[in-house]
Write a structure and sequence with these properties.
Elements lengths: L4 E4 L14 H11 L3 E4 L5 H14 L4 H4 L3 E4 L4 E5 L4 H4 L23 E6 L4 H18 L14 E3 L4 E4 L7 H7 L4 H13 L4 E5 L3 E5 L5 H12 L6 E5 L9 H5 L3 E4 L3 H15 L1
Parallel strand pairs: 1-2, 1-10, 10-11
Antiparallel strand pairs: 3-4, 4-5, 6-7, 7-9, 8-9
Helix pairs in contact: 1-10, 5-7
Bound molecules: magnesium ion.
């Protein structure tokens, strides 16, 4: 069946983990917006989607009519945001954020871009506390708690509303440092094993370069992808998904398990290669 939706993991699939997408990916995604619904889905928070993807697309010239085909499945799709190009007056929809772009930019007039939150499934405070304490205990027991390496104001365990995320060196650590921390996932697999003993009612997934995402069972990418099917009113077979952690236990694995067609990439260069091929076929 013809694909109508291209869905993407973000970290290591569209970018170098935790950094804005490179020009090449931005340009390819803009081209794809003319032919496909584009759905990034990742454990990150909304502001990171803006910094890493949306701002870059606007900087590279994405038009509002193209942005209407961009769907942000935040925190593994437990939150969904979309661009609404209609005036607030006309439809009474309240914009929730302004996208910051350079004032000289030709599309800066769209910087009051209207991103509407369509749904949100947050964790309760009690759940956040249980998860945080299980992870911290596990990490400290294993000797991987590296608070001394944190940048000022950074944190190891972050409440992302729909999930709790452990980032061994914090969010702001350098890329190289992060890559070096746990390249074979061994440290994180140990943490996951222990955290699961301490708080078994939650699921823990290894992602990014130093991260573990803790969620309530079922609130993984599969939840997000099911929502995507509903929200976009498409069939599974219409989606093509790109991810770098499609192996068992990886945070893209739930998508594979659903039977959605998946392309496993090592990095954003692989993704760019595949997208060039797809666009070559489409045009
Ligand atoms: Mg990834």
């Amino acid at each position: 069946m013809r694909k109508t939706v291209l869905a993407f993991d973000i970290d290591q699939t569209l970018n170098v983990a935790k950094t804005p997408i490179p020009d090449e990916i931005a340009d390819l995604l803009i081209d794809c917006l003319d032919y496909y619904e584009i759905c990034p889905i990742s454990g990150q928070k909304f502001d990171q989607f803006l910094i890493q993807i949306v701002n870059r697309l606007i900087e590279r010239g994405a038009k509002p009519t193209q942005l209407e085909h961009l769907h942000l499945f935040v925190a593994q799709g437990t939150q969904y945001y979309r661009y609404n190009n209609y005036t607030t007056k006309q439809y009474g929809i309240k914009p929730i954020v302004s996208v910051e772009v350079s004032k000289n930019h030709p599309f800066a007039k769209y910087d009051e871009a209207k991103w509407e939150q369509v749904y949100n499934y947050p964790l309760t405070n009690e759940q956040v506390e249980k998860i945080s304490s299980a992870i911290e205990t596990a990490v400290r027991e294993l000797g991987f708690w590296e608070e001394d390496k944190l940048a000022p104001g950074d944190e190891i365990i972050e409440n992302r509303l729909s999930q709790v995320t452990f980032s061994a060196l914090g969010q702001k650590a350098g890329t190289e440092e992060k890559y070096a921390w746990d390249p074979d996932c061994k440290k994180r697999n140990k943490i996951v094993k222990r955290a699961k003993e301490l708080a078994p009612e939650f699921d823990y997934e290894v992602g990014g370069t130093t991260s573990i995402n803790a969620i309530t069972p079922g609130m993984n990418k599969q939840f997000g992808m099911k929502k995507m099917l509903k929200m976009l009113d498409v069939k599974k077979s219409e989606i093509l998904y790109f991810g770098d952690m499609t192996q068992e236990g990886g945070n893209d694995y739930p998508v594979v398990q659903m039977g959605i067609d998946t392309i496993t990439v090592r990095n954003h260069e692989d993704t760019a290669y595949a997208l060039r091929g797809i666009l070559g076929v489409t045009e």
